[in-house]
Design goal:
The structure holds 2 protein chains of 2 kinds. Chain A is built from 17 helices and 11 strands. Chain A is of the alpha/beta class. An 11-stranded mixed sheet of chain A has the order 1-3-2-4-6-5-10-11-9-7-8, sandwiched between helices. Chain B is an alpha+beta fold. Chain B has 3 domains: 306 residues, no CATH class; 113 residues, no CATH class; 57 residues, Arc Repressor Mutant, subunit A (Orthogonal Bundle), CATH 1.10.10. In chain B, the strands form 3 sheets. In chain B, strands 2-5-6-9-1-10-11-12-13 form a 9-stranded mixed sheet. A 3-stranded antiparallel sheet of chain B has the order 4-3-14, with no helix packed on it. In chain B, strands 7-8 form a two-stranded antiparallel sheet. The chains are: A alpha/beta, B alpha+beta. The interface between A and B is large, with 44 and 31 residues.
Amino acid sequence: MTGHSADLTRRSAAELAALVASGDVSAVEIVGAHLDRITEVDGDVHAFLHVDTDGALASARAVDVARASGQDLGVLAGVPLALKDVMTMAGVPTTCGSRILEGWRPAYDSTVTRRLKDAGVVVLGKTNMDEFAMGSSTEHSAYGPTHNPWDLERIPGGSGGGSAAAVAAHEAPMAIGTDTGGSIRQPAAVTGTVGVKPTYGGVSRYGLVALASSLDQAGPCARSVLDAALLHSVIAGHDPLDSTSIDAPVPDVVAAAGRQDISGMRIGVVRELTGEGYQAGVQQRFDEAVTTLVGLGADVVDVSCPHFPYALAAYYLILPSEASSNLAKFDGMRFGLRVGDDGNASVEQVMSMTRATGFGDEVVRRIMLGTYALSAGYYDAFYGQAQKVRTLIARDFEAAFGVCDVLVSPTAPTTAFRLGEKLDDPLAMYLNDIATIPANLAGTPAMSIPIGLAPEDGLPVGLQIMAPAMADDRLYNVGAALEAALLAQWGAPLLDGAPALGGAAA
Amino acid sequence: MTTRTVEEVVPYDDVVLRYDPVLGLEVHVELGTATKMFCACPTVFGAPPNSQTCPTCLGLPGSLPVLNGVAVESAIKIGLALNCTIATWCQFARKNYFYPDMPKNFQTSQYAEPICVDGFLEIQVETDEGLKPFRIEIERAHMEEDTGKSTHQGGSTGRIHGADYSLVDYNRAGIPLIEIVTKPIEGTGRDAPEVARAYVTALRDLLRALGVSDVKMEQGSLRCDANVSLRSSPDAPLGTRTETKNVNSLRSVEHAVRYEMTRQAARLNVGERIVQETRHWHEDTGVTTSGRSKEEAEDYRYFPEPDLPPIAPAARWVEELRAGLPELPAARRTRLMQEWGVNDFEMQSMANAGALELIESTVGAGATPSGARKWWMGELARVANDRDAELGDLPITPAEVARVESLVAEGALNDKLARQVIDGVLGGEGDPDSVVAARGLAVVSDDTSLLAAIDDAIAADPDTAEKVRGGKQAAAGALIGAVMKATRGQADAARVRELLMSRLS
């Protein structure tokens, strides 16, 4: 382990891209440093389900060759990235954290994957996640949990705990997550990283294995607001393969991340997303961050979104309903696991045995909930009512954005809890997403950025910024301003205070 | 397990004396778009299994649908031609159920908001009392995707039950379908089977005229499910219905409805109730057998398709499509009746035989309407019937028929020779002129050789010749026949008669 390699894994994506572009460091060297780091720490963290060493090095070499031959390089060319295992990548295993997809290698790239490749980004491998993105702790992965780099006995959040932990543990400078109810933002909050859920339709869902089609959205995970913006700009934009993709210019998030002036900006603190149920240290750091925003010249006001308390209930009807249908295709007929095909069993029996074996408990729970909610006689009372709540929540946002430019709240009600602590209590687990779910229901963009450590446990706290649809740039504007102010207060990035990893590495 | 494959039936006349039938017809049309409903895969029929597939129509994880705009256009055209209201806003819904030939285990269809509603189709029904007009009310026409096709290997039935293994071809999965559903068809009485057939025929002709589908029932691009129920009288509440599937020809539509009426009547007569179920029509044995019971209504858990935005056809677009509709069969029929000087019944026969377009093309190629009609409705209809084929599928073109007719008009062929020419064309011997040349077919117009044959005939049968001389003209037929036989049919019979009479006068 050379000091030089260690240094490279501490660099930002923007810096690494500049090093590659200038020719000071080769992409192969950068990727090699990160592969070494993975070897060193991932035995403890378990952020990755699959490391594509050969593919990553080949991609890195291609970037170096392109640079040597004077070709234009993408904005993030040569920068390594960790891809959540819910995104397809041709020839590379995609499991979604489930046994039912064990061994499946898709023949096609997701649009996000293709855009990353086109930009010269080097995919290191696929990251761990709660099975089919159902969970808030990554404990529901069929391949074992990911550990929080801040405390290996604690959860890294979920469902994208692998992506957040990989970034926090310096195994990759950036990662792709997907956020259906908070799966990018809550892991970012509990690992001290930055995570963004773009506007619904801002990033193509083609090749994202669907959990809940009307809620899913892929987005960037990084250690800084600027890095997140750079990654956002690479993956966003209209895609004719996704009919829900927005055909409009992508907001200039990179420019916004360079603007640190928020004086006069109207920032609303959502009354319903603070106070009771929020850990004291989380609330304290949040209040301090709001004070910092005031200090930066923002016009902070108290805002009520009266229907937000119903968001969780509506979400846990809409999500399982869509999931029960989206996950019907996993039947052992065309790909993935097949169980019980002994020549005697009927096709229905094989489907049934495959699904019973291949799906974990949380997946089965949500399929059953969704099947029930969509059933004749219950549809109006459950799915129908939930959609009405969804409309009311969208109206709450509209009203709030009538008086505010952005809204803020704590990202998650608590810091990282202990592995196993909430595994037997689904309702307690679901409450982790109470502040993040409204943005998914409304399709609006939101970001989590680290705002310090909770005094009582020394673990990271995240602040959520929410903006109107297609105003993703505001997230980066406010995020960059707050990030700079906090960095000035702290004197060093928050992650520099995380414990060293890899002492026990084999 | 015992299955009752042959059930009791009662004579049809007894059925209609005691019961009033109510029909409901669901027709699935595969659109003739170049690509599938939600992906860019081609739709060519008969391609090698699974050669026309992609992640989307295979339902692979992460794939997403993109709506085929031409399919929406076709759906609107169909709706307009069926006098439907075109929805100003509609959406797709997922119909959830597990089946191995359905890649996603849900079908993307339309449910509460179909694109076309409340239309009608005017049809002419051939009955014992002549042609009767009938108006079929259309409930809805909606867009959906086809499933893959399973073939079950081994076992005796070809059905999934008892098969050793099954193969699935996903080429058909995702082909655009329009499902056209009638309202309950009441008031047909004893004509119910003919009404069903006439409706599907009229619908087929309409769809063909619109150019939206190749409407080939034998290839499955037009499929009919027939719902049939009986009640004691037109005032009684609707009886329990059965839904008969696998009805793959126009004739089957009629026969399946008739069979199902006789089967249901037999049950009702002995006080049994009708089981609400899906039944399968067997073309070979002419019966339906029980399929899936629908007593426990299947719950498809419909909900709006979140992967596709709603569709809101602009009024202006709909009006453009309306203005661009081609001449529809009813209007065309009226025009052709005038142009060809035929009556309603003759026109109906031609339409029923699928001959209208062929005759029109033959006329277009230079034949007279009566000449064109004579060949298509006569000799060619007979051949088609013998071969159990559609007229349009015979290997002869309207231009070739027109050429045969012109050779007859010129006097180069007589009808008998013309039939031989057609036989040659159908047999792949080439175009009419080639067949004439190769077979040496030509009317013998040389009087010298005809007179020699006539003299031979008179010599061979002097008694008959004497009768003709005595004024018994009807007896001449035998002599003319002998001459025709001697000239192997190549003589002009009229000329033979002329020469014979002058010889014997």
